[in-house]
Amino acid sequence: MTKRDYYGILGIPRDATVADIKKAYRALALKCHPDRNSDDPQAEEKFKEASEAYAVLGNVEKRRIYDQYGAEGLRAGGGASDFSFFSDSIFSDFSDILGDLFGFGSFSPGSQQRQSRRPRKGKDLGLEVELTLEETFTGLEKEVEIEREVNCSDCDGTGSEPGKSPEACRHCGGTGSIRRSQGFFSVSSTCPTCQGSGHRISHPCRKCSGRGRINENNKIKVSFPAGVDSGNRLRVVGEGETGSLGGSPGDLYLLLRVREDEKFQRHENDLIYKLTLTFSQAALGDDVKIKTFDGSERIKIPPETQDGQVLRIKGKGFKHINRWGRGDLLIAIAVKTPSHLSGREKELFRELREIETMKERSKFESKKDTLN
Asked: Where are the beta strands (DSSP E) in 152-269?
């Protein structure tokens, strides 16, 4: 596969929505389809490029791989030019788009007619989920709400009132396509009456108005393992849109975003805590107790600890995803200058300053004697 800028081919930004991607492909397909540009030898190549770009960006998982690794990242799993790359849902989208544009269109000859009468896999869905830093540390089971298209429960996806069945389309005889002969050529196009389904609904279901599908809001429980981080994607198999005509459901992809914490930060798998000390604690040392996501932790502050120094406690950080072990707990030391000093405190600090001054003079005199 050559390196391609699929976003550039479709003329869309990298944060384009699924609807934007589909809209851009629809416009480009109409503009570049070879049947509408018989005098342009490059039209077919442009049309193929646009279809390849849509096959990647219109698929949640393939788009994720492309965004992270580029076109080369798709090579290992089957590239956009590989026939096995296209999912049923992508084929369905091609058929819907091109069928709308040209009345007969499909990605490959006759595919729309075949697709309309065989099971279709439900579309994949994407959802952003926000977690707290503590939730990513401990892991949790969380309920998420999704809106998805499912088969109508009243008609079981047929589109007909319960007890009624769809009738064969009289225009195409139930085949879903109309074949016309033009000289030496025979052209097959989608039946305009039944839109390729091969049947018509004479008694539409009242709940779904004959569509066979309705939108539903569902709440599902998802387990988020300890150690997940912002930007991670979790795949929940079978929780996408319901398939049609007995097809399998799509999958749900959850994009994680972690909310900032007031006390803790994360660096890779290390948990960072900023500990503020007084001058006396830093100089003399101390035992400090802090509360972490794991519970209470006692920190031993060694004497003469400096501002900006980092203390490390092994194995108290985030769990590694997909392997054993944990990161560390890092204690970042910040020495605080006291304020609102009492008279006694000022007196002690003046005394301390005199001692420090005498020590500096002693060091200077010692160095001077050495040089002489």
From this structure: 167-168, 177-182, 185-190, 199-200, 213-224, 233-236, 252-258, 264-267
Q: What's phi and psi for 310, nearest 5 deg? A: -120, 125
Q: Is 137 left (phi over 0), alpha (psi -120 to 50) or beta?
A: alpha
Structure tokens, 328: 């560390």
What stretch of H or E contains 357? helix 343-371
Q: Give all domains of the chain, ordered by start, each with its CATH number.
A: 1-86 (1.10.287.110), 121-166+201-259 (2.60.260.20), 264-337 (2.60.260.20)
Q: Token pair for residue 96?
A: 């819907």
Quote the mean pLDDT of the chain. Answer: 83
Whether the Cβ atoms of residue 272 and residue 330 lie closer than 8 Å to each other:
yes
Nearest to 211 by CA among 172, 252, 154: 154
At 137 the pLDDT is 97
Decide: helix, strand or coil at residue 53.
helix
Residues 189, 178 contacting (CB under 8 angstroms): yes
Report pLDDT digits (tens) over 152-191: 988 888 888 888 878 888 888 778 787 765 444 456 677 8
DSSP summary character for residue 326: B
Cβ-proximal residues to 344 (8 Å cutoff; 6+ apart), any chain: none
pLDDT (tens digit per residue) in 268-305: 999 999 999 999 999 999 999 999 999 999 999 999 99
So what's the pLDDT on residue 312?
96
